[in-house]
Amino acid sequence: MGNAVDVAVEYYIKRFGDDVSKAFIHLVREVGEIAFAMEKGNVEHAKVEIAESIALLHYMARLYSMDADATIERIYSKKLESLTKQQP
């Protein structure tokens, strides 16, 4: 079927189509579930909710024609370089 991200994106395309607003609202709910799981000390539940949040973010990135991995690498390479320069 494809890699994990592709499977998740396909699921969210079927669920939300191109409605990024509905997807974002769902993402906020998932983040709330992460907080609830952390508060209760339920690591397994937190892992599931983190995975769902990551999948939703990949889906949203695809809607915006964004290469998430390349963008993250570009941004955080610069941030890491900046931090490295600040350290004595």
From TrEMBL:
Stated name of the protein: NTP pyrophosphohydrolase MazG putative catalytic core domain-containing protein
Domain of life: Archaea
The organism of origin for this protein: Candidatus Nitrosocaldus cavascurensis
